[in-house]
Amino acid sequence: MWYRIELAYNGSREDMGPYVPANHRPMESNTSSFGALAHLLKASLGSGVLAMPLAFKNAGLLVGCIGTMLIGLICGHVIHILVKTSQQLCVEVKKPALGYADTCEIVFQNGPKPIRKFASIARELVDWSLAVTHMGACCVYVVVIAESFRQVSVEYGGPDWSVTAYCALTLIVLIPLTQINKLKYLVPFSAVANFVWLVSICISIYYCLRDTPDISERNMATSIDGIPTFISTSLFAMEGIGVVMPIENEMLKPQQFLGCPGVLNIAMSAVVVLYGFVGFTGYLQFGENVRGSLTLNLPLDEVLAQTAKLLVACVMLLSFALIFYVPVDIAWRRIQDRIPAKTHRWAMSGLRLFGTLFIVGLACAVPKLELFMELVGAVCLSVLGLLLPSVIEIIWRWGRDIGPTHWIVWKNLVICLFAIIAMVSGVTFAIKSMLENL
After folding, report:
1. Cα–Cα distances in Å, from 374 out to 11, 71, 225, 369?
2. Fewest CB within 10 angstroms: 75, 136, 357, 437, which?
3. What is the pLDDT of residue 70?
4. Which phi and psi (to 5°) does residue 437 adopt?
């Protein structure tokens, strides 16, 4: 097949031996396996962990535990096939590393003839799904920040304004913070945020384990109507596919990312255990009153609980600029060539200002934390985290070692069907909830 020949010679011909991508990565790509594990855990254990009690509320304790393990298993497997495909592709095209969008585009370009014309569409789909996912996360951050400061303000005699007003007030900090356009200047904020985040999670777990009610007071399972919401919220919480490829691309020994025990398996096991634990204990403690962020359920009259709320709010303020960097970068790459070079600095500032105002405006318009998580999880993460990697594996291996009757094809088709059902049902229930809250 001619496109395989094209792949085989699409690179340097200096070496006639096997091409080892890791040997050609820049010197800066020297992250150890332990460092990669730490980065992956840090990226995965974000604000989503505080949303797991809400997911358990929609499924019940027993179904929630089983569902968390199943979704964790599916997410881990899908990340595995994406990374494995990317690593094999790097050898074929003689590239040291490929990102998610690059992998999608090259796989489509060199797939069966009828689908090659969709290569650019696949790349755009990945990029904009990543952008919308991160913008949705930013909206979640704004609402949590506003809710947290409002609760503390009301408790201590401050103004009892609406959540919308507090969302608007976040602009005082977010506008100057989002004007930082170099990642290296955001590193100190990230370091502080990581420490503060750990402290706030520990405080939240303490309240989950304090004077827990009897397990019989909680639902073991709920109606089928709650399952789409559970899946959407769990995907929002657990799916970290957007950070996987950048971490793998920086590894000194990328072959240790996969395997057993590999970086991915260890990280996903830890994520599933912690998320399941927080979801179980959070729902057990707060029951049907559980909120989209666990800290919003903490007692209003205790200093330690209020401290945890403020710490989480501060973490999200500091982390906002990091999350915001992704959609801005994706948008800027598409418009910078159309703008005169001498006005690039002003144009970038304007783009960042517009993006910040848009995100905060969206949060003000729909200050329902749960709806953002359900919509982002249902749409973007179903596509990014489940559908596309499965399709990519089929295209990449089609005609090489699999055909129409191979079990891998049917396995991936089942994952695709699950992704489509999760997306359609999740969006349907999220829109229904949104209309009910208008």
Report:
1. 43, 15, 14, 9
2. 437
3. 92
4. -95, 0
Query: Residue 78 in contact with residue 415, Cβ under 8 Å?
Result: yes
Q: Which phi and psi (to 5°) does residue 334 adopt?
A: -95, -15
Residue 23 is predicted with a pLDDT of 73
Q: How far is CA 62 from CA 56, 208, 221, 288, 370, in A?
A: 9, 18, 6, 15, 22
Q: How far is it, in rounded angstroms, from Cα 366 to Cα 48?
A: 19
**What is the predicted pLDDT for the residue at 14?**
45
Q: Give me the sign of the Cα torsion angle 90, 95, 98, 102.
A: negative
Q: From CA 33, how far away is CA 323, in angstroms rounded? A: 24
Q: CA-to-CA distance for 97 and 91, rounded, in angstroms?
A: 9
Cβ atoms of residues 48 and 278 within 8 Å: no
Please tell me the pTM assigned to this model. Answer: 0.80
d(CA 364, CA 258): 42
CA pair distance 179, 186, nearest whole angstrom: 11
Assign 277 to helix, strand or coil. Answer: helix
Residue-by-residue DSSP string for 243-260: HHHHHHHTBSSGGGTSST
Structure tokens given for 381: 């993460």
Question: Which sign, positive or negative, has the C-alpha torsion 202, 312, 292, 154?
Answer: positive
Q: 129 vs 132, 135, 226, 303, 423, CA distance in Å?
A: 5, 10, 25, 40, 13
Q: Are 274 and 133 in contact (CB under 8 A)?
A: no
Q: What is the pLDDT of residue 177?
A: 87
Q: What pLDDT score was predicted for residue 66?
A: 93
Provide φ and ψ at 218, rounded to 5°: -115, 155
| Cβ-contact 152, 310 below 8 angstroms | yes
Could you list the mean pLDDT of each consecutive 10-residue stretch along the chain, which spans 438 residues? Answer: 43 56 68 78 72 88 92 88 89 84 89 87 88 84 87 82 89 89 66 78 89 87 82 75 76 80 87 90 89 82 86 82 82 87 89 92 77 70 84 87 85 90 79 67
